[in-house]
Amino acid sequence: IDLEEDHHDDGHDNHKEDEDEDDDKKRDESKSAAAPDTLVSAFASAALAGVLQAIVRTVMMGLTAVLLTRYLLLIVPAGLFLVFTAWRIKQLQGFTGWGACHPLVLGLGLVLMHYGRELPEMTWSFTFWIGEALVATMFTYSTLPPQETPTMFAVIAVCMFILTLWTRGNVWKYTTLTALQVILALVLALVFPILEMFIEAILNEKLKKVGDKIRAQHVRMEAYYAAKQ
């Protein structure tokens, strides 16, 4: 009877240990599922969001350069809307100076692009280039966070002036630029998960080695204190 009771107690203890191990595994899985995004995934999200914003801005810029600035019937309401927007920004949010001038500079760029197209026997001119560069600069600058600086604006302006030397209001060049950005977005969407898995595997291997060293040190310390006793 005693042997049967001991065997029953051992079985009960083993069953309890198995249940504890299962509970630990479930807790670990729940923690890993609820863990915040890794640095790679956060960077991937930010990069994809930036590329998608660039695609939207490029499409808007292409429609503006190819369609909107061709017709005075479209330029007039667009200019009036931008003037009204600048007035409302200054009135409602208290922006003064440069903040309220964003829509006005954008409207000036639209007017320059329109009159640059109106020159005789020319589809592109220096006036159109200045207007296109201003509009592209304001489109890009308006997507930045509120901590923008004059240096950042100067860098964006230089990049846009160089880029618009190539686009020149050509619909096929804007289409090519948009296609390249879409390809970049697809590449980022495919590469970042693989990169995240690769980095996670490296980190797990490093953590495993660290854990082995800690356990070995713990065994040595136990042996040391046992020998002293």
C-alpha geometry? elongated
**N to C succession of SSEs:** HHHHHHH
| Cα-atom radius of gyration | 32 Å
**Which structural class best describes the helix and strand composition?**
mainly alpha
Q: Major sheet: size, sense and barrel closure?
A: none
- Determine the N-to-C terminus distance: 39 Å
Uncertain stretches: 1-21, 24-36
Beta content: under 5%
Total strands: the figure is: 0
Which range best describes the helical content: under 10%, 10-25%, 25-40%, 40-55%, 55-70% or over 70%?
A: over 70%
pLDDT averaged residue by residue: 75
DSSP helix count? 7
In short:
With 229 residues, the chain is mainly alpha-helical. The protein has helices at 2-34, 39-66, 72-92, 98-117, 126-141, 150-167, 171-228. The chain is built from seven helices and no strands.
Report on the structure:
The protein contains 7 helices and no strands. It has helices at residues 2-34, 39-66, 72-92, 98-117, 126-141, 150-167, 171-228. It is mainly α and 229 residues long. It is elongated and about 95 Å long. α3 (72-92) packs antiparallel against α4.
What layout of secondary structure does this protein have?
Elements: H1 2-34, H2 39-66, H3 72-92, H4 98-117, H5 126-141, H6 150-167, H7 171-228
Helix pairs in contact: 2-5, 2-7, 3-4, 4-5, 5-6
Name its key features.
229 residues, mainly alpha, 0% strand, disordered N terminus
